[in-house]
Amino acid sequence: MDSDRARERRLMTDTQIRARGVRDPRVLAAAAKVPRHLFVPEALRVHAYADEPLPIGHGQTISQPYIVAYMTEALALRGGEKVLEIGTGSGYQTAVLAEIAGEVWTIEIVEPLARQARAVLDGLGYANIRYRLGDGSAGWPGEGPFDAIIVTAAAPVMPAALEDQLGVGGRMIVPVGTDLQELYLVRRTGQGIERGRLLGVRFVPLVRGS
Ligand code: SAH
């Protein structure tokens, strides 16, 4: 019996993530460790390690495992970083970040999702996560700069307020666009901001708070 589903996780990590080119050992280790099925609604748990996004309720989705790994690798985390996440959702991406970084500061706008994610993450014993309920479009005021920022819902245009919360040497990964979206990697250097386009993606849109 493999009640923890570790074997499925290893297979997912090898065939969906490593096989597509993700090489960062920290990311591969986190993918093989975090029990993704606990972040998925019970009725869909059988599909938790499949190569696809899944609905998590409230019109939201948990991203495909490969996309979570790809975005995490793009942040180039080495341990100890202070990371901001916009869109806690299921909390799965949050857990992957918490495995690698020093602290994860995560913001979710849908209250029941925030509550559920926190319950699962607390249950798994993650003590390096800070939670906030509300609109994360402007980041976490007063808490920047962050070493890395990840946005897991699509911003209509490049979010300048989040770029402002990125420390020198920091990286942000963010899907930008409405119908056609592209994943951008933003870097703040001593000289200014560099923005690079990585690939076409489909994310749910960032919701504007009131
Ligand atoms: N990383 C998540 C993906 C969730 S989908 C996971 O692994 O499950 C995107 C999430 O962003 C949704 O939960 C949605 O409610 C949230 N969201 C959308 N707009 C937001 C906003 N303005 N501020 C904070 N969270 C937002």
> What is the number of independent domains?
1
Strand coverage percent? 25-35%
CATH H-tier superfamily: Vaccinia Virus protein VP39
Question: Which overall shape is indicated by the principal axes computed on the Cα atoms?
Answer: globular
The CATH topology name reads Rossmann fold
CATH class assignment: Alpha Beta
- The N- and C-terminal alpha carbons lie at a distance of 49 Å
Number of strands: 9
Strand order within the widest beta sheet: 5-4-3-6-7-8-9
Which ligands accompany this protein? S-adenosyl-L-homocysteine
Cα gyration radius (Å):
16 Å
Please report the number of helical segments. 6
Residue stretches low in confidence (pLDDT < 50, at least 5 long) are none
The major sheet is characterized as: 7 strands, mixed
Notable traits:
28% helix; globular; seven-stranded mixed β-sheet; alpha/beta; 6 helices; binds S-adenosyl-L-homocysteine; two-stranded antiparallel sheet; Rossmann fold; 210 residues
Task: Explain the overall architecture.
The chain is an alpha/beta fold. The chain has a single domain, classed as Rossmann fold. It is 28% helix and 28% strand. The chain contains six helices and nine strands, in the order ααββαβαβαββαβββ. The strands form two sheets. A seven-stranded mixed sheet has the order 5-4-3-6-7-8-9. A two-stranded antiparallel sheet has the order 1-2. The N and C termini lie far apart (49 Å).
